[in-house]
């Protein structure tokens, strides 16, 4: 029955078209039709699927500050060598309201070891011969000057790394040490124990790999950031997503609580903790170790424009839909003004000074700001107007992003488009999580958009097709191919579509709430999906001007299951042609490149295809569906190629204009 269903799906999406014959295409090389923004292809980051804590943020200790609703979640009692004692959870709500909870270890044996062990985020991934940096904020509560033994323990219970921490006093202080793992293990744990008799209070128990992105202390997971860097993104949208809104307004994302010292950042429950009961994740919280400063810094590292999204005074309308009264919006609007100051302000300003104190005296050159995420209705329009009125007056240099709701073509969408157009918003954020068939059928979506209206930010999109139980199975070649076809229309209409990003960005294979996702990871490994490699071919093989590529005078938007776009970069001397053959037949194409440009005699070709439309990459076979590079000869100004079935081609041609 399942095979029959899949057969029916493919028959409607990629049916063979007998007798397609030869397709002659014309590429006009001399005359560009539109400019492509340098920030067109970007990435959307949200702390979903353990994307931040347990993912991009390299902290290995879960619930390091004991602020989860269950303070000992992730921890359990541990003892060695006849050690014994008691564990207590204490609060200092008056003295430290942001991070009041801490752990007391009361060790009651002169000789033994007694304390706690942390399980990490579905385990701790450690590698042989690599160093890990431990830190704790602690004090001696009673007894002699204690020693604390810190151990890495493998999945079989054996010690694979150890260090000892000393120097405790009766005052809270940060103490540090390091240890080297003797083994590679994806499911290690951390044991922290007091040696002998004594009482020690502990908070912010932390373990980071020394090998982080750019070797920044307590930084980001290097292999995950490398995957983002390889995309050469033009922008980084953060922090989401529905994470911006919160289940209710008390749990909305508040950027000011995510900057400054990490121990002073107020942890909250992650909205994806209980959003999907079939993927219930009770241990999902936001430590905000990855906060707005770190997001800005990451954008800078990636060479991407930062695009923060702020709450507009509305909680998620799929949840409580709480609203801030219009006459009480001032604090929310002030947050927007203060964020611009934090990003761009002089170091003599309040928030510019904080940025400098955190290590970045130079401004981050913020140019974009999103107001609200995925809201709809007149209540959103009213609140957007309040923000825009102030921001346009005080910061006319900032481009504002408004929303169009959660769907690409319903009543809410059309209402908001008209309202946002009247408001002269700079960019309208469109979202579409649709079937592969929708993506194949909408390559011409923007062909008839108003050229004088607001620009489009395709802020969240992904093809949702057939799936199997294995998490990565929804990221099929079929879904990636349909996105590649759709994206030819984004290039062709770059005068309307200025920015685009797939969503969500990444997911932990053991802790996901939503799929498909662009990048999958576990505690030690990372896998790019077929969708990732499609995005990479668009973002790395991109020109800065659109060229016309047509068949019989019309753009290819699915005729004979063919899709095409083209661009050029005169400065780098490159022409890029992207072709999608969405049929299950080979198709012969001849491309005549008209114009005065002189072309190299060879072109680089990147080809993506798969025998099975439902093929996907796994941790065991991470390169099952990836681009394959080759070269072809060019005869004069003609490219002659037979496109394989279900294939995506990128031709990179050197040219002198």
From TrEMBL:
Name of the top EC class for this enzyme: hydrolase
Keywords: Glycoprotein, Hydrolase, Signal
One GO BP: L-arabinose metabolic process
Gene Ontology MF terms: alpha-L-arabinofuranosidase activity
Highest taxon above the source species: Bacteria
InterPro entries assigned: Alpha-L-AF_C, ASD1_cat, GH, Glyco_hydro_b, Glycosyl_Hydrolase_51
Catalytic activity annotation: Hydrolysis of terminal non-reducing alpha-L-arabinofuranoside residues in alpha-L-arabinosides
Residues annotated as domain Alpha-L-arabinofuranosidase C-terminal: 459-647
Protein name: non-reducing end alpha-L-arabinofuranosidase
Source lineage: Bacteria, Pseudomonadati, Bacteroidota, Bacteroidia, Marinilabiliales
